[in-house]
Amino acid sequence: DVQMTQSPYNLAASPGESVSINCKASKSISKYLAWYQQKPGKANKLLIYDGSTLQSGIPSRFSGSGSGTDFTLTIRSLEPEDFGLYYCQQHNEYPFTFGSGTKLEIK
Amino acid sequence: EVQLVESGGGLVQPGRSLKLSCLASGFTFSNYGMNWIRQAPGKGLEWVASISSSSSYIYYADTVKGRFTISRDNAKNTLYLQMTSLRSEDTALYYCARRVYPGTPFDYWGQGVMVTVSS
Lengths: 107, 119
Hints:
- The structure holds two protein chains of two kinds.
- By secondary structure, chain A is an all-beta fold.
- Chain A is 0% helix and 50% strand.
- In chain A, strand 4 (33-38) and strand 5 (45-49) form a beta hairpin.
- In chain B, a hairpin with a 5-residue loop joins strand 4 (33-39) and strand 5 (45-51).
- Chain B is globular, with a radius of gyration of 13 Å.
- The chains are: A mainly beta, B mainly beta.
- Chains A and B meet through strand 5 and strand 10 of A and strand 5 and strand 10 of B.
């Protein structure tokens, strides 16, 4: 199975700042990495797939980069609604595996 | 609007069975692969099972293989998860999610249904 190591576990930032979340795969997954946002009472939202492709309807302040084993989600100019949990997931092979999550909190 | 609504959760004793349903609307259900993903309380996401659009291809996580069965009824726009021999570690919020085609991520998720396995 592909192990996904996500960091940091917690992140505190202020609105307007930029943050980055990292995800490392235990073996190459080519470009097949997705990022999701999770908020209480709402359906999980797909933000980025194929490493850097922005899902339809997602603001351009979200961006993804990387390939192979190392990937990064960057959120520029944080908005209040961006705070929540973020997960990476490899969608290259079964079993699909997720990172352990990053909690983005307001500083 | 794409909607996925899970149902069938609840409190169940260890060793018993439970069947979850996911009613889909707002898209042509028979064209999409469907999936179950779960999240134990305070924990991360764990993929559980996947089924292709025509039910030709089915995959399970090792943790549920032999105990859970994923199925679908395209005429009823409904995805199912039959869970047997339930264990305390199966306690989780169970989500259904859609995939466009193999190699793609989960583009729409339901809000989840809670399953609690306890005596």
